[in-house]
Write the structure tokens for this entry.
Amino acid sequence: MKTKKDANNHSPLYHENHKKPITRRDFLSQGFLSGLAMCSAPGLGSILGYSKNASAAVADCSTTTTFSGMIPFIGFDLAGGANIAGSNVIVGGPGGQQDLLSLEAYEKLGLPSDMAPQMPGQINTDLGLAFHADSAILRGILSKTSAATQANINGAVLAARSANDTGNNPHNPIYGINKAGASGDLVSLIGTRNSESGGRSQSPENLIDVSVRPTRIATPNDAMGLVDTGKLVNLLNQQDATKVMQTIERISAIKLGKISEDQAIKSLVQCGYIQSADLVSRYGDPAVLDPASDIELVGGANSIFTVDEFNNDELLKIASVAKLVVNGFAGAGTVEFGGFDYHNDERARGENKDFLAGQAIGASLEYAARLNKPLMTYVFSDGSVAANSSIDNSADGRGKLGWRGDNSSTSSVFFLVYNPLGRPQPIGLTSQQIGFFRPDGSVETSALPISNNVGLLAESIVLNYLALHNQTSNFSTVLPNNGLGNAALIDSLIAFQPLV
């Protein structure tokens, strides 16, 4: 809310002893509309045909895209303390995912003994990373991805403790991803929540750069609102509107050449016209940014979402973010989903929430595949849950153990990478599990620097993002004050070889 002082500072200025202007004639008499009259004077035909040779020297303004060419990145912030380890992504001991824990440990992670990973058919590796065969997140992903897309996905799980059900965990690495080079054609970072990180969980303080604070994007209207080309495009077609704005820029250049303002001010004014003309030429058609107009997403015979799904607020979020990030309009984005504090002594609610998250993750990966673009998705949550001894035999409970309450010791995060040129290859035999669990089903907090430090966990995601680009050597430059340790420790935190 503006203070009275602020309001006064921004109040209109009036001539002393004159009445307030209230009519067009009053404004004209004081010169307030003379600029508009001058711009409106030339005929439309003469404006469109104005010779480029009449232009004064143009300012050095860049109108080329700022898209960095880095791999698009989407973070999924499952607010409330979702289950990831065990019932969704398989976790094991020091030997990796297949170094299986005890039956009692997997019961703590929500799986009755007859559904433990030791039992036949209980592990699925369709996405490279090992999931439980009945993982709700996996089922959601598979429901939105083709077999061809699945064949080019791989991922890693990171066993790391985080505090329960709080936004204070510095989980979100999005500023670090930007520091690594991710930037968009229109905006650097976006998020579905109006917060400093774009989601619920915070970003590590040492990574935050307020100059690239995420722009809130949660609906198609938000996406289209990134560019306002004014009413000119509605009055003319896109090509003619661009010509008008370019001509106005040339007229402005001539006028600026005859006045004595500092050259920097002249350049700023002229660049404003040039960049506006560039926006109209590239984004005068709002459908360019509109996920609802993209038949790969909705409205086509083989769209990723049905019309009903597209009306789901949560799925609408990922459609809007994926549209901007995968196409390079934004460098990276965060999608927050709420309601993952589902420890209500049954299982059905958690299964449904996890399935919805899986659909969103899968939709983003499938959209990248259809556009022939790589994509890194990162899934994190504030803490986790532990199971009780009661089996939920309802249709949605699927015969699994109910979630009893929060448990920070069972938390983990994971990421998936899609590569249109082939499945990402692990850097080592056990590199798809970073860190490990104790035999009792809890995170071994002494395993690695990231195991009990969420800020360092976020830094490790930036490291893995750089590794996909074969830029691991740049890590100390990108994050000069990182806390991941010596070269050997840093190497142990990398999951995949650079993408081919």
User: Anything to note?
Assistant: The CA atoms of residues 208 and 216 lie 16 Å apart. The first helix runs from residue 4 to 9. The chain is about 35% helix and 15% strand.
